[in-house]
């Protein structure tokens, strides 16, 4: 087993520990940290962990009007001294769903993280695990049962390790001759898929990047336009010579299903999509479009006609070496439940609607 594979395995074990409420250690330039995820922690495990400092994402820290230790273009993780006296107290700080019940927080004392690179990698791991980006933290001490480095996390999430796992014919409503192709990384739990519609020819295909949306794609949610976009894209591909739908397992713009539902609850309180994500402690855009670039490379598709209203997707795919020869808009009617969502896309995230 090569070093990248060994590192990816260590990171996968650490994310598993994170989800289960077990402590783990992450090492990086500038220091190593012992961490216990706030959301999955229990008081008995916290007592054994014996650390009462909290590590929050920069986005959540900005919401709480905390100041990081250094000026930065983007907010970095912030460590609060002795703020995590128990799981309930920590959740009151970390979970925005509890902000109304616990409006008064602090005063807090921020201290150096003890390892900025390790702290940033921990936030990526929390998002990948679908948990709130908040940890009990202490300086690394003694032996660690579960250990990884920031390089291990990068190896786990490296799209270059993605390979084709299986392919089969899949008749669908838009095309009875469609083919489905599944992609998998060895240590990763999420399988991405491509649906190839029509017959490949010498022209660039119509390509749609569609991020998984259980509520919209499967349940018919009216809060977003994901389901209608998915089906409209497939029918547009069927009308073209050929097309490829890349279905990316990046629910909720990369924050996961549970956190997306938390964002929905915040939207019910009056926050828009952008502010809801920030209050949760996540970036506005957390998806990795390098995955799509790798999928296209494995399918030997270097040039595409991209169906999107988001110019940022064009730029990010071109950064991966994909030649986007045309951007095709996708216009659909709104409803009373998704009007604000689409207005936020237009006004705050640069979508051309």
Mind explaining what this structure looks like?
With 353 residues, this protein is an alpha/beta fold. The chain folds into two domains: 3-156, DHBP synthase, CATH 3.90.870; 159-250 and 287-348, GTP cyclohydrolase II (Rossmann fold), CATH 3.40.50. 37% of the residues lie in helices and 21% in strands. The chain has 14 helices and 14 strands. It has helices spanning 3-20, 43-49, 58-63, 87-94, 116-129, 150-156, 214-218, 226-239, 251-254, 257-268, 273-280, 290-298, 311-319, 339-348; strands spanning 24-28, 31-37, 53-56, 78-80, 110-111, 134-139, 147-149, 163-169, 179-184, 192-198, 206-211, 242-248, 303-307, 323-328. The strands form two sheets. A seven-stranded mixed sheet has the order 5-4-3-6-2-1-7. Strands 8-9-10-12-11-13-14 form a seven-stranded mixed sheet, with helices on both faces. Helix 10 (257-268) crosses helix 11 (273-280). The protein is globular, with a radius of gyration of 21 Å. Mean pLDDT is 91; it is low at 68-73.
* H-E string: HEEHEHEHEHEEHEEEEHHEHHHHEHEH
CATH architecture verdict of the largest domain: Alpha-Beta Complex
Gyration radius, rounded: 21 Å
What is the number of domains?
2
Number of strands: 14
How confident overall, as mean pLDDT? 91
Largest sheet: 7 strands, mixed
CATH top-level class of the largest domain: Alpha Beta
Number of helices: 14
Strand content: 15-25%
Helix content: 25-40%
CATH homologous superfamily label of the largest domain: DHBP synthase
Taken from the alpha-carbon principal axes, the silhouette is: globular
Low-confidence stretches: 68-73
- Helix vs. strand class: alpha/beta
Do you know the CATH topology of the largest domain?
Answer: DHBP synthase
Strand adjacency order, main sheet: 5-4-3-6-2-1-7
**Separation of the first and last Cα atoms:** 48 Å
Domain GTP cyclohydrolase II: 166-329
Active site: 287
Catalytic activity: GTP + 4 H2O = 2,5-diamino-6-hydroxy-4-(5-phosphoribosylamino)-pyrimidine + formate + 2 phosphate + 3 H(+)
GO molecular function, one term: zinc ion binding
């Amino acid at each position: 087993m090569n070093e990248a594979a060994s590192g990816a395995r260590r990171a996968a074990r650490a994310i598993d520990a994170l989800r289960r409420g077990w402590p783990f250690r992450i090492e990086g330039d500038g220091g190593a940290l012992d961490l216990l995820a706030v959301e999955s922690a229990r008081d008995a495990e916290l007592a054994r962990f014996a650390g009462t400092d909290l590590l929050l994402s920069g986005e959540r820290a900005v919401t709480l009007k905390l100041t990081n230790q250094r000026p930065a273009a983007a907010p970095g993780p912030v460590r609060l001294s002795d703020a995590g006296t128990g799981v309930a107290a920590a959740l009151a700080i970390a979970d925005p769903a509890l902000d109304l019940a616990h409006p008064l927080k602090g005063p807090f004392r921020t201290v150096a993280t003890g390892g900025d690179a390790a702290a940033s990698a921990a936030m990526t791991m929390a998002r990948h695990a679908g948990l709130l980006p908040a940890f009990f933290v202490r300086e690394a001490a003694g032996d660690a049962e579960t250990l990884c480095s920031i390089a291990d996390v990068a190896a786990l999430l490296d799209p270059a390790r993605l390979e084709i796992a299986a392919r089969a014919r899949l008749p669908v409503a838009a095309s009875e001759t469609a083919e489905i192709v599944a992609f998998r990384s060895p240590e990763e739990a999420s399988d991405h898929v491509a649906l190839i519609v029509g017959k490949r020819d010498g022209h660039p295909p119509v390509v749609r990047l569609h991020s998984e949306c259980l509520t919209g794609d499967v349940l018919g949610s009216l809060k977003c336009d994901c389901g209608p976009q998915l089906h409209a894209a497939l029918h547009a591909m069927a009308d073209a010579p050929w097309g490829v739908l890349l279905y990316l397992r990046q629910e909720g713009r990369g924050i996961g299903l549970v956190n997306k539902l938390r964002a929905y609850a915040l939207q019910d309180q009056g926050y828009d999509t952008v502010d809801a994500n920030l209050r949760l402690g996540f970036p506005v855009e957390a998806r990795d479009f390098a995955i799509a670039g790798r999928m296209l490379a494995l399918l030997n598709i270097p040039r595409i006609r991209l169906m999107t209203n988001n110019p940022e997707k064009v730029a990010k795919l071109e950064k991966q070496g994909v030649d986007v020869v045309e951007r095709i808009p996708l216009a659909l009617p709104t409803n009373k439940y998704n009007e604000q969502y689409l207005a936020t896309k237009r006004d705050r995230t640069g979508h051309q609607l």
